[in-house]
Amino acid sequence: MPDRSASTVSGQRDCALYRFWVRHPETGGRALGYIGETGRLPFQRLMEHIYQQPWADTIMAWEVDPVTFSDKTSVLAAERRAIETELPLYNVDGNLANPGRIPPGRAVLQRQARDPGWMQPQRNVRVPRQRAPRAASPRAPRAASPRPARRTAPPSQLVRWWTRHRTTVAGWAGLWLSLWAFLWWLGRNAWAGWDEPRNAAALASVAWALALWGRLRTGNRRPRRRTRSRSRNRR
């Protein structure tokens, strides 16, 4: 069947033949199913056949002939010669003398036997279209949109306390280590074995605790407010 919708583009776009290879509904072998011509993009005709033809479920492959024709008359003549020579299964025009052809009515019955409840769609069904690739046009670079500010969870009380007092904690830890090392060196002649580090650690802890207690006690003292004595006017 000629592609009548392509007649309006005659002389504007090259035309070509295409072929569908199908699985024969009676023998199961590979057979030439259909020969057509088009002046449009071949994908458009492929989708039209898939949506409209009852033999679309038997398609195994399809190909576009590499030979192109510059006008509609030439491609129609080439299509007729190819149909009369290659004898496809489902072509109607130019294929009536083919003894192995399958008429459209029998093709519908065969499809309904393979797919119960199948109904042939209308001719004006809308099918997907293939668009020709467009030349890439230079575009101005887009300005990078500012990223939204990332919200972070507020720090916990422990983190805030450590940030505020880490220097003080490090100083008191260094004081304990200094006391422990000094007492170990001081009692090196009085203790032996594991008694040296153990006793030094115990004495260092006691001295460190007393120093910390004194520091906290001094820090908690608040200076007394000076109150001015009010002189009472004697009457």
Task: Present the secondary structure layout.
Blueprint: E1 15-23, E2 30-38, H1 42-52, E3 59-69, H2 72-86, H3 104-114, H4 157-186, H5 195-220
Antiparallel strand pairs: 1-2, 1-3
Helix pairs in contact: 4-5
Helical content (DSSP H or I, runs of 4+): 25-40%
How much strand content do the residues show? 5-15%
> What value does the Rg take, in angstroms?
49 Å
Would you tell me the overall average pLDDT? 78
Please, what is the CATH homologous superfamily of the largest domain?
A: GIY-YIG endonuclease
Indicate the multimeric state: single chain
Morphology: rod-shaped
| CATH architectural name of the largest domain | 3-Layer(aba) Sandwich
What distance lies between the first and last C-alpha atoms, to the nearest angstrom?
Answer: 133 Å
Spell out the helices and strands N to C.
Answer: EEHEHHHH
Helical region count? 5
Low-confidence stretches: 4-12
